[in-house]
Amino acid sequence: MRFRRQFARAPLVCALLLASGGIIRAQDVSAMRNAASVVKTRTYVSLDPVPRGAEFQAAVVVDIENGYHVNSHKPLDAYLIPTTLTPQLPPGIHLADTLYPAGQLKKFSFSPGKGLDVYTGSVTLRLRLVADEGSPLGEITVPVTLRYQACNDTACLPPVRVPVTVQFQLTAAGTGSQPVHPEIFSAVPPQK
User: Fold this and answer.
1) Whose CA is closest to 70, among 189, 187, 156?
2) What top-level class would CATH report for the domain 37-184?
């Protein structure tokens, strides 16, 4: 039985070896398993509560581990994987726009020449949303997928899709609502 289990893993190991063009070191395999841990996320909503008929924003703050970067939403080369935010909107909630900040042009040892357009440190990605007049009232949960590929100065980890959740309370039109999290939403909207 033990032989069968080990033999069953052989195709996966061979595929990894072929894809990498050589031998995979133990630390490389460890890094692949941890690609999603290079980034931490926090979510915010601009109104509390959100009344029907209102336009509001949801923000995903992306904290990138020191020593790593991710490509901006508009990388300079077509083969690079852009950072994207994709919501799965419930009925009655509509996407007006997705706002991505401009990246920073940085040079790395593997990208001599013009460099790369990347995000480092902490960046805020925003969704402009509209709650229809007929949207269901109550607690609303919006699943969002953050896709990125993290790299350091010598290697890139596999691209990942990280699930993020935005939650807010939806109330009747005309219900009192107040802006919240001015530290996130009062800044000039990011460049696309």
Assistant:
1) 156
2) mainly beta
User: What's CA 47's distance to the chain center, in Å?
Assistant: 22
Map 62-119 to HEC letters: EEECCCCEEECCCCCCCCCCCCEEEECCCCCEEEEEEECCCCEEECCCCCCCCCEEEE
140: nearest Cα among 42, 59, 45, 40: 45
Which tens digits make up the pLDDT trace of 39-65? 999 999 999 999 999 999 999 999 999
Residues in Cβ contact with 82 at an 8 Å cutoff, skipping those fewer than 6 apart:
71, 72, 73, 74, 75
What DSSP state is assigned to residue 91?
T
121 neighbors 129 (Cβ within 8 angstroms) = no
Asked whether the beta carbons of 35 and 157 are under 8 A apart, the reply is: yes
Interatomic CA distance for residues 41 and 178, integer angstroms: 24
106-162 pLDDT tens trace: 887 776 677 899 999 999 999 999 999 988 999 999 999 999 999 998 888 999 999
Domain boundaries, the chain: 1-33, 37-184
pTM attached to this predicted model: 0.79
C-alpha of 22 from chain center: 30
Contact 142, 86 (CB under 8 A): no
